[in-house]
Amino acid sequence: MPARHRDNIAFTVVVWVLVALGAAAVLLVLALSGAAGTLVVAAGLAALPVGPVVATYLWLDRYEPEPRGLLAAGLLWGACVATSAAVVLGGVGGLVAPSTARRPPCSSRR
After folding, report:
1. Is 105 exposed, middle or buried (0-12, 13-18, 19+ CB in 10 A)?
2. Which of 27, 46, 60, 110 would suit a FRET pair with 81, their CA atoms being 20 to 30 Å apart?
3. Nearest to 74 by CA among 63, 60, 87, 88
């Protein structure tokens, strides 16, 4: 087995392990958030652009094709990073601009 092939396999395994760890962390945070209904709707809406994105990557990859496993790992890694960033920014946004739902309604005095 050539050394280059072993290096490619090792790299692919490392990438997949990192993707699995990132996905597990994101799933843990989302599971502990307690918003199952919102999670289902958000996951459905987030899946809508995946088809065109994958088609674009495959179209761009036609001249110098990469292994399909690495393309899948890159897509999953991007999904983990995007979800993590959204969770962090949502948390920071909640601290910076707290919800107005806790405030009592305005009463008009005359």
Report:
1. exposed
2. 60
3. 60
